[in-house]
Amino acid sequence: MNQELFERGLQTRREVLGDAYVDAALANADEFGMPMQELVSQYCWGDVWNRPGLDRRTRSLLNLAFMTALNRPHELKLHIRGALNNGVSKEEIREVFLQAAIYAGVPAAVDSFRCAREVFQQG
């Protein structure tokens, strides 16, 4: 494991998703799951999220579309919170889901709207 990239990834992960989520993810990782936490923190958050080609806001918008297309509600809720932290508005989130309805399917987008309402109600 590249410790420097891991630490940088943890920092980015915390800035986007919040300390509480990251702390819980790490605390709940056992011997089986910790390698996945390390991979996610180092590769996804340390390397890809910190590349200079796209800003965090744009990456968040893309993730909302991807999670909708892949029908991953748990990850979608997490990334809706992250998108809000990255300055994406509720209106922009709605537009991503409407766009995704056309290309990923209406049922997937309906579920995404449902997930967003849950996140918005939680504050």
TrEMBL record:
GO terms for molecular function: 4-carboxymuconolactone decarboxylase activity; peroxiredoxin activity. Pfam families: CMD. Signal peptide: none annotated. Coiled coil: none annotated. It comes from the Bacteria. InterPro entries: 4CMD/NDH-1_regulator, AhpD-like, CMD-like, Decarb_PcaC. Its EC number is 4.1.1.44. Gene3D superfamilies: AhpD-like (1.20.1290.10). Residues 36-118 form the Carboxymuconolactone decarboxylase-like domain. This is 4-carboxymuconolactone decarboxylase.
